């Protein structure tokens, strides 16, 4: 190493400022090219040393291409394991639906049916931000394995559960692991592929999500009808086990986030457990209020109001704690000062809100209006999901080749908005050509949108901030989906109740709310009210249409947010500093930041 380069010059810390230079932030960074002798050779490799003592902490992405990415068989196995992990997350959200009847029948626990999904959703949403901090501080590889282990443990408990309560506990534990799986997959991908090649894999993630969403109801129905519903959870053990083995033996990630070799206790103290301890109960209270309001209890019930108030108070306290914690917080305030990060989070929020609410209530359209079973409804969703898979992979390839994502995402959100807008025209007699074609248009848009939030933050943030940035956008998407599904439930029920009261006031609307979507004709037969079927279905359609309006509005909001993204090109080589932004950098040059003693 050249004598004029101090050991501290080789620090890979991204943020810092010289304590000896109080006015350092007024200076500009000036790169100086020097060389170092590679170990075991006489070859000289250039190093770009950047005097970083002069700058405030920046979110600007530094060169991460000095990372040694895996290749060949090792890379293939890692990517396959990540795809399996994404498949697990998506599969577990849909495979349980056809099995709910058998589960409640075995446990005689119809009153607990809401908790079978809520327990998984609450823990899976609330812990996503904390996982971002854990991935940032602790070893990424073992954190990811821990997340899979929790997911597998929860699945095993649910599979062997002797009671409804044990089943709910298993679902909650599985949610604890689920919270770290998708964001962890995206973080590991950032250490496995150069940035320019990642869009293809992000596209594949979106495609796999679509495939799993289709396979879930089909597998769930097949297991329930032919073997036992418990295999809906046993299957996770085989898929997750394979992913763990590959990650454990083949993944190598440098310990770039613990340069000072801090002890485990010291790193735990930097987890912002105070912030997490405030945020997690706040999210749970908000989701419970939205799920219980108008269903379990009236909206003006003291329990629902108390949950909303509690969520609001904890949110205000959390904001104060995060401002106090600064960069040590699970949601660092400076993220919200960077327009692209804010836009990425908002984009994912509205996309998740639009897409997940649409898929849920589009399935109800086929079951209630067209009289299909859950499995048949899953098959009729294939146009949406297959077109989504195709557009996801194709757009990923286009972005990888061109390095541009802005135009692609604008076209994607436009297609999504138009497609869902057309779906709002569905009625009792919508022909195959329309429900098939409108889903294809929607899918061409949704496939593009799956990867954009992740791609934006990984394009602009330094490597050590990728875990937190990834968790932030994933949390936004999960929260958006959870909130809008809950709100859409209220909107749907209000439309159904109003429609039935106007057309058939002698009928009790709650009967149809508490029954399965495909049971409407049978219920009316039992009530000797078969002649009212068309009016009831019209009211049902009115409620569904209200949810489609919500999804359309959220898709339009995502389009508007996408307009706020900077037009940045994903670079093939190392990324330049602010002063050299827009210039290609020699990929053989390692950019590091120099910190004065």
UniProtKB/TrEMBL annotation:
Q: What GO molecular functions are on record for this protein?
A: transmembrane transporter activity
How does it sit in the bilayer?
Multi-pass membrane protein
Protein name per Swiss-Prot or TrEMBL:
Major facilitator superfamily (MFS) profile domain-containing protein
Listed under GO cellular component are:
plasma membrane
The record's subcellular locations are:
Membrane
Q: What is its main location?
A: membrane
Where is the chain membrane-spanning? Answer: 77-101, 113-132, 144-162, 168-193, 200-219, 231-251, 271-292, 304-321, 341-361, 381-401, 408-429, 435-457, 469-492, 547-565
Which keywords accompany this UniProt record? Membrane, Transmembrane, Transmembrane helix, Transport
Give the matching Pfam families.
MFS_1
Q: Where is the Major facilitator superfamily (MFS) profile domain?
A: 78-570
**PANTHER family, alphabetically?**
AZOLE RESISTANCE PROTEIN 1-RELATED (PTHR23501:SF198), MAJOR FACILITATOR SUPERFAMILY (PTHR23501)
